[in-house]
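Target protein
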Amino acid sequence: VSDLQEEGKNAINAPMNPSTVDIHPEDTLLEENEERTMIDPNSKEDPKFKELIKVLIDWINDVLVEERIIVKQLEEDLYDGQVLQKLLEKLADRKLNVAEVTQSEIGQKQKLQTVLEAVHDLLRPHGWTIKWNVDSIHGKNLISILHLLVALAMHFRAPIRLPEHVSVQVVVVRKREGLLQTTHVSEELTTTTEPASHTCAVGDVLILFFFSPKPERDAFDTLFDHAPDKLSVVKKSLITFVNKHLNKLNLEVTELETQFADGVYLVLLMGLLEDYFVPLHNFYLTPESFDQKVHNVSFAFELMQDGGLKKPKARPEGMDVPRGFKLCLKSSEQMYFKCNSIQ
């Protein structure tokens, strides 16, 4: 009986006892009533959590490739504001008025303050909830850093696929009456990363991809001609998105330039995005002539208008894949911004 009573007593008092979770020494140096958070070690082994970190690191390194910056670990490489400054400047195409290199803690926090204020100015008008601050970023709080990066990636329509519905268990350590107490809470890092208007984002980009008029040559054309490997990430992102939907019909795209040129996949994609069945008698499933292909593209344009897009300026019969591909790459960021404002 005494053993049973002791077990009951332990069960009642358990929430008040120090946790058995591994806690770093620096996390025990808390003032009375102070608290600190950390990710549960088991959550760090979650494949989706690992994928999220990898995708974000690869994205940052891709954006900053010209700066010759290589991020290997988010907490260690982003806490001082240097990489975040370069990332925001690249994404927003603006220069921040901050010191380039700062070694002191005060200087680093001042830089972070400037960078985060610029981030907040961009995100707040779109309804983003700010889940980070200077102290949490500089304190190498991975949860805060991930919230910040996910928000930036989604706001700037990064050409990446973030894993959906990623959550982690967070250990909250508090100091009460000289003892460390711990609780566990679930923290959601991503929900669904689909754009709110699939038709808008994909429809506009695909129109530009295939049917846009010839643009003037600029620096982007030079990049297209001499560094096509750097453009492959955009094309890969489009293919991934398209296949996510076309796979529902057991269809798969490997080459946008050829497989979308006759309008068939474009028609089917619009139906999938808008959640309706397109009657087969409305278009040619296996077009054999140029006129039939033009009919399919015209019909796809009508579906896009029905989905809320403006009437395309391009003519269906004016297909020019190479030029359209270039203009798609130039305009995709602008189109994503435009679509984001609709949400």
Residues 25 and 180 are 12 Å apart (CA to CA). Residues 21-188 form a domain with the Actin-binding Protein, T-fimbrin; domain 1 fold (CATH 1.10.418.10). The chain has two domains: 21-188, 198-340. Confidence is low (pLDDT under 50) at residues 7-20, 195-199, 213-220, 319-343.
